[in-house]
């Protein structure tokens, strides 16, 4: 049975920016699946990326854009991950694993 080690939010808040930092859940070990769900209330085509993470196909709707980034941990991990947005906009996300 998978274990949810934690979740936390992140994003740019009220300031438009192209990057945001997310804290990797404590206790992350090899083979844990980590997810970062990014979203923005814009109709402009928007994508997100992070070094070493797999970007799933972005989705678009009438009220915004969203994309899931995934990573399978190769060992114990800690610290932060920086996510880059294709535009300098207000956006938010959540990391869990």
How would you sum up this structure, described in words?
By secondary structure, the protein is mostly beta strands. The chain is 0% helix and 53% strand. The protein is built from no helices and nine strands. The strands form two sheets. Strands 1, 3, 5, 6, 7 and 9 form a six-stranded antiparallel beta sheet that branches. The protein has a three-stranded antiparallel beta sheet with strand order 2-8-4, with no helix packed on it. A hairpin with a 2-residue loop joins strand 6 and strand 7.
Tag the structure with descriptive keywords.
97 residues; mainly beta; 6-stranded antiparallel beta sheet; 9 strands; 0% helix
* Overall strand count: 9
Helix content: under 10%
What's the order of the H and E elements?
A: EEEEEEEEE
- Can you count the helices? 0
For the largest beta-sheet, the strand count, sense and barrel status come to: 6 strands, antiparallel
Structural class: mainly beta
Question: Mean pLDDT, nearest integer?
Answer: 90
Runs in which pLDDT lies below 50 for 5 or more consecutive residues are: none
Radius of gyration (Å): 13 Å
**What gross morphology would you assign?**
elongated
- N- to C-terminal separation? 13 Å
Q: What is the beta-strand fraction? A: over 45%
């Amino acid at each position: 049975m998978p274990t949810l080690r934690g979740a936390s939010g992140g994003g740019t808040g009220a300031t438009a920016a192209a990057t945001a930092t997310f804290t990797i859940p404590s206790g992350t070990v090899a083979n844990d699946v980590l997810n970062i769900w990014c979203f923005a209330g814009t109709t402009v085509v928007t994508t997100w990326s992070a070094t070493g993470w797999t970007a799933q196909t972005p989705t678009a709707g009438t009220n915004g854009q969203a994309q899931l980034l995934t990573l399978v941990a190769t060992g114990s991990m800690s610290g932060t991950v920086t996510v880059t947005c294709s535009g300098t906009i207000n956006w938010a996300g959540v990391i869990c694993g």
